Amino acid sequence: MSDPQGDAPQLTHFVGGQPRMVDVSAKAPTTRTARAEAWVLLPPESRAALLAGQTPKGDPLSVARLAGLAGSKRTADLIFLCHPIPVTSAEVDVTLKDAGIHITALVKTTAPTGVEMEALTAVTVAALNVYDMLKATSKAIEVSGVRLLSKTGGKSGDYQAAERPPQP
Length: 168
Hints:
single chain, alpha+beta, Alpha-Beta Plaits, five-stranded antiparallel sheet, 4 helices, 7 strands, elongated, disordered N terminus, cyclic pyranopterin monophosphate synthase activity, lyase, Cyclic pyranopterin monophosphate synthase
């Protein structure tokens, strides 16, 4: 948003230098979706332990799916200026690839504000749970490539991220 003079952007979440949650009560609820991704890059010893089923804390892929679903529903507790919204659907996919573990989330709502933060939180929480469950195998595990892939709905319209190759 810009100020009436067109000089500088107007901060929507700060008034008089103080943070606030933007009032969305006048906005009509609309259907909105967001898809996000993250990567967990595995050193050889972590990948070997995962493939051999010798991970100290159990199956990190199953736990990551559940953690991502929970993360999508708890976003407003973690992101201070994020509105609590009804998550009407959430899917978290956790797949072992050559480059590491690829995590995607698709989150949907019918609300006056979007679900981008819920999708990003889902993949981030899932990735952190993978790290936690595999950290005994190596401290060189990396969480990488967290990004919004797409969104639909809302005043700002649809968004589609540029394609890029999988993480190294």
